[in-house]
Amino acid sequence: MTATAHRADQVRDPQPGRDDPGGAPTTEVSWDEGFLDYDFGPGHPMSPVRLDLAMRLARELGVLDGVTTTTAPPADDRLLALVHGDDFVAEVKKAGAAPWRADGSRGVGSDDTPAFADMHAVSTRYVGATVQAAERLWRGDTLHAVNLAGGMHHSMPGSASGFCVYNDVAIAITRLLELGATRVAYVDVDVHHGDGVETAFYDDPRVLTVSVHESGVSLFPGTGFPGSSGTGAAEGSAVNVALPAGTGDAGWLRAFDAVVPPLLEDFAPQVLVTQHGADSHLEDPLAHLRLSLDAQRRSYAMLHDLAHRHAGGRWLATGGGGYEVLDVVPRAWAHLLGIALHRPIDPATPTPEGWRHYVSSRFGRTPAQRMTDGADAGFRPWSEGYDPADPVDQAVLATRTAVFPSRGLDPQL
């Protein structure tokens, strides 16, 4: 690592749970046991156990000590209609009432998004939680909010897709606009392109969408290339960093640093909404990036810092993908909760004995022993120069060239 490389352990640490030492707690965590009913059945990659294990781990680490988790009413049809068509909502309701009859219409009952009992009711819990978090951020009731169950970024206005029924983040952002927001930034670090959220705002300059993902050449949904950058008045408001398969910590963090901070500084969002799919990890079975837990943790810390620098601290963080459900997702999202609550977890911390016993007894596997993969998670900043032979640098320059000029920024600097 060079002397100028950034370190994974550089996490700003205000008083735990507070930004103002004399003020009220500034982070809310959404949790509802009903979230675990979002279940596509045995063998499906998106197992609700990942949510259960993440919350259990955070509790046993003490991250949630003194934190009262919040529940929210399910989203009603009016909220769903902010993004989704009536025909699609009707199809989800019908599938939830008789899952065995779902035939894949509008993506419901397809191989990737199978129908399950009460599909509509369960999915509206995810939406309700993310929307309530957005509303409370906008009112100033809280500064940060986390909904690990949220981040269903593939769902389209008229169809389910990629394990996502209703697009809670797109609905929450639209609700912020309805409440009067004029600049909302969305940053998606899931390994897959955040296509559903981008689609919802592709012609809306009030919303900046940034997706850092594995290239669609090698991964679902096959979209998210630099040239897809918005239309009309929103040209330059959709940003896609399409990284080559095999990209690891140093390249991914360099790409993030080269694109996300300058755009957020320029856009100056009133609220930062983020999606933290953990499927960029090298052990994830569905994708081909090679990030460590330490690099993922570093990205959460960077986004937290950017929220404070450019969005007045107003930060709504959601979960997303992640299919190594025993070792990766629980540790990654426990770190996300720790950072959002201003209680960052030392990477050297052992995973709690009680949590390890629960995992081994239930799943018959010895879980990870520490809250780190032991990676350095350093990177060389873009300002130190561009390597035209490096595939990651080529991808970064393609994004900057496609987007920066329309925002008055120099792609070369």
From TrEMBL:
GO biological process: acetoin catabolic process; epigenetic regulation of gene expression
Keywords (A to Z) from UniProt: Acetoin catabolism
Pathway: Ketone degradation; acetoin degradation
Annotated InterPro entries: AcuC, HDACs, His_deacetylse_dom, His_deacetylse_dom_sf, Ureohydrolase_dom_sf
Annotated segments matching region Disordered: 1-30
Gene Ontology MF: a single term: histone deacetylase activity
Domain Histone deacetylase as annotated: residue spans: 44-337
Cited CDD domains: HDAC_AcuC_like
Basic and acidic residues bias: start-end ranges: 1-21
Signal peptide per UniProt: none
Similarity field: Belongs to the histone deacetylase family.
Name of this protein: Acetoin utilization protein AcuC
Organism: Motilibacter peucedani
